[in-house]
Design a protein that fits this description.
Blueprint (H helix, E strand, L loop, with lengths): L1 H39 L4 H8 L8 H5 L1 H23 L3 H25 L4 H25 L3
């Protein structure tokens, strides 16, 4: 049993590290696209794609277009993107814990917005929240059983 767990962690840990790092880079790219689209009023295809992924979770068009909502969402994405990139670079339990926390906050924030405020689109939030909870759970497994080995 212990051997199976060790083998599973040996396979899971590098995959999860690359995934969290890549997800952080994706978040930073989305942040930059949101800000560039707003600041320079550009809507090139790449900017438009990455710049609208997060904002299109909102149900109300006014929320999607409001400059303050867009900026605050961009800053939030920047914040957890930086933590995820650092967790992917540093093989450290504390950084894994911080990254797991960003995924939990993301899941619960979007979940709250759907359940209590009805301000976001249900199927999009369900996918985001479930994936975030899964990643947080996997990171916690790495922390609990994998340590820094």
């Amino acid at each position: 049993m212990a051997h199976t767990t060790t083998v599973s962690l040996v396979i899971l840990k590098p995959f999860l590290r690359v995934f969290v790092f890549s997800n952080g880079v994706y978040d930073l790219l989305c942040f930059m696209c949101i800000i560039i689209m707003m600041k320079f009023h550009r809507s090139w295809m790449v900017l438009n794609f990455f710049g609208t992924l997060h904002i299109n979770v909102f149900r109300d068009e006014d929320d999607r277009r409001h400059p303050l909502v867009r900026r605050m969402l961009a800053y939030w994405v920047l914040t957890y993107g930086m933590v995820r990139v650092l967790a992917g670079v540093a093989d450290d339990s504390l950084m894994n814990c911080a990254a797991a926390l960003t995924y939990l906050i993301e899941a619960f924030a979007f979940g709250y917005e759907f359940l209590a405020e009805r301000s976001v689109i249900g199927y999009k939030v369900a996918a985001i929240s479930l994936m975030s909870l899964l990643i947080a759970a996997l990171l916690n497994i790495i922390i609990a059983w994998g340590g820094n080995n």
